[in-house]
Amino acid sequence: MANALLPHGITLAYDDLGAATAPPVVLVHGHPFDRTMWAPQLADLATDFRVIAADLRGYGGSTVVPGTTELSVFARDIEALLDHLGIERFILGGLSMGGQIVMECARLFGERIGGLVLADTFPAAETEAGKEWRRELAGRLVREGMRGYADEVLYKMVAPHADAEVAAHVHRMMTATDPEGAAAALRGRAERPDYRELLTRVTVPALVVVGAQDTYTPVADAEAMHAALRDSTLCVIEGAAHLPNLERPEEFNKALRGFLSAVL
């Protein structure tokens, strides 16, 4: 693990594995997790690629900033980290909120991205009911902490039959997240833009992945993104819910490696 102090005063904790000269792949975690959700991918890909996974601000070992963190702020943090590392062009992937941050990165500095990986995510703006729910949840997390929420959603994040060690890892990530950081992300995500039109203008190759049992971002959402993108591959991973990269890492890594080998 390393830490980068970015020009705007935020410190991001990150892993940077593989040869510095290898093709760079950047992975963005979801909410309310941290960079360790990508552990199976870092271990697998680092033999052939340079793999970077950071804790977003508010999560893991990175700076916590209370209030509201919009997706554009997360995206600019990633851009600043890659500038810090001297990486100009890269493949960018994210899961759930991380996938929405990837779409925001494509909006802000898409010319630097050579390919997209969109896992268990969706591009639509939040509904009014969804905005209210996210704001209420943000307040609850600050008042009560993360454990109750983590207990409630664990077996929606992973399938009920998930490996016990995987479920324990997911629960640990959620309970270790700073409530202020999680709340700031929820408030910002409530105000996210609609990325559906953006996807129709993406010209680089994309991989769309989804767990077959994902109820947060169902297969239909992945199919719609696949249809909107000009050059995309769709991979539905059986036996997985919202975190197929952890629940079914072999299948996820096979799809990811196949995509990267074709693009890089």
UniProtKB/TrEMBL annotation:
Keywords: Hydrolase. Gene3D superfamilies: alpha/beta hydrolase (3.40.50.1820). It comes from the Bacteria. InterPro entries: AB_hydrolase_1 (IPR000073), AB_hydrolase_fold (IPR029058), AB_hydrolase_sf (IPR050266). The keyword Hydrolase applies. Residues 23-249 form the AB hydrolase-1 domain. GO terms for molecular function: hydrolase activity. SUPFAM superfamilies: alpha/beta-Hydrolases. It holds the Pfam family Abhydrolase_1. The keyword Protein transport does not apply. PANTHER family: AB HYDROLASE SUPERFAMILY PROTEIN YCLE (PTHR43798:SF31), MONOACYLGLYCEROL LIPASE (PTHR43798). This is Alpha/beta fold hydrolase. It comes from Streptomyces monticola.
